[in-house]
Amino acid sequence: MPPASPDAVARKLIEMLKRRRPELEAVLDEMSKNREGQRELARAFSQAYEVYLKSLRLEEAFDFLVKYLETAYDDYSELD
Fold first, then answer.
1. Angle, nearest 10°, between helix axes 58-79 and 6-20?
2. C-alpha–C-alpha distance, residues 11 and 55, integer Å
3. What pLDDT sits at residue 65?
4. C-beta atoms surrounding 66 within 10 Å
5. Quick one: CA dihedral 46, 44, 3, 25, positive or negative?
């Protein structure tokens, strides 16, 4: 079976994030409000997709994305 498309993986990761780590949804929302944040999110999802392609495990891509967003949250918190 071929790997899922980047869009399908991104949708599933967002669904997993909302269900398992709802506090990070605010980070997604905040980052999506400006162009730099949108670029960072695109980079994060692209890298998460690469993790998925290497392992073919959504769980590993999810773990990567969570760590990325937690770091981004820390960076945004320091700006306040």
1. 70
2. 18
3. 97
4. 17
5. negative
Contact 73, 24 (CB under 8 A): yes
Predicted pLDDT at 19: 97
Residue 79 — pLDDT band, cuts 50, 70, 90? low
CA distances from 5 to 33, 46, 48, 66, 71 (A): 25, 11, 12, 20, 26
Report the predicted TM-score, pTM, of the whole model to 2 decimal places: 0.87
In order of 9, 20, 61, 76, 78, the CA distances from 13 in angstroms are 6, 10, 8, 21, 26
Integer CA distances (angstroms), 15 to 4, 19, 34, 76, 79, in order: 15, 6, 22, 23, 28
Q: Can you list the alpha helix ranges (DSSP code H) found in 1-80?
A: 6-20, 25-31, 35-55, 58-79
